[in-house]
Design brief:
It is built from 12 helices and 2 strands; from the N terminus they run αββααααααααααα. By secondary structure, it is mostly helical. The longest helix is centred in the first third of the chain and has 22 residues.
């Protein structure tokens, strides 16, 4: 049996274990889910309201689902390496087979545009109300890292959330406020590192560079930070 332990660990981490079946948040009813994201029993019958499962059964159902996804992926003949397959198994378990199958991701992988496929995976971070969800951001990041883990290093990297935001920035009040809110939450030292790495010039910030005398005053005052 193929080792899909990394995919299983990811699914367990983000789905969590639920003993009792709970309703779909978008419908308030079906489909019901329990265990580690299970909605159907191995015989194909749906999980119903009030159904329960033990952790042992939940893991048994999860392994069954992982193997089903593996079988379906094999039918596509995409030439996936093991890291890609494990990343996709977790992703598909999260979003569903048909949404994956009819997404752009399949064609991009088939054309060996793996970094663009990773960018597409990173976009699946919204709930049924079209709001970005923090745990989905974390999950997609881990799935993408696993998906790309066995690919040789390249100068081409998948576009992240911030880079996408920068490219789509149009100066609207809503976008400006969102950026300012994000900046207010970032530590000053992390922000300073970003400014240096991004090579933002002092004239861009409409500020002046510290004189050497001012620099030494600041350094001496916060020497415990500079010594790190």
């Amino acid at each position: 049996m193929t080792d899909f332990s990394k995919a299983v660990t990811l699914i367990q981490k983000y789905e969590g274990y639920n003993e009792k079946a709970y309703e779909d948040p978008s419908t308030g009813k079906e489909p019901y889910t329990f265990g580690y994201g299970t909605q159907y029993y191995p015989d194909g019958s749906p999980v119903k309201q009030g159904h329960r499962c033990t952790r042992e059964k939940a893991l048994e159902y999860l392994f069954h689902e992982v193997n089903l996804i593996d079988e379906e992926l094999n039918k596509l003949n995409l030439g996936l390496d093991h890291g890609m397959k494990q990343g996709l198994i977790s992703f598909i378990h999260s979003v569903g087979w048909e949404p994956f199958l009819y997404s752009e991701i399949v064609d991009l992988i088939d054309n060996e545009e793996f970094y663009k496929a990773a960018e597409q995976i990173n976009q699946w971070i919204f709930d049924y109300e079209h709001k970005a969800i923090g745990h989905l951001l974390d999950r997609r990041k881990e799935e993408v890292n696993l998906f790309l883990s066995e690919i040789n290093s390249s100068d081409e990297l998948p576009t992240g959330i911030l880079l996408t935001a920068f490219r789509n920035y149009d100066g609207s009040p809503v976008q400006t406020e969102a950026i300012n809110q994000l900046e207010s939450k970032i530590s000053s030292y992390l922000l300073a590192k970003f400014i240096n790495n991004f090579e933002i010039k002092n004239q861009d910030l409409k500020s002046t560079v510290l004189s050497l005398e001012e620099y030494y005053i600041v350094r001496d005052k916060y020497d415990y930070i500079f010594d790190r």
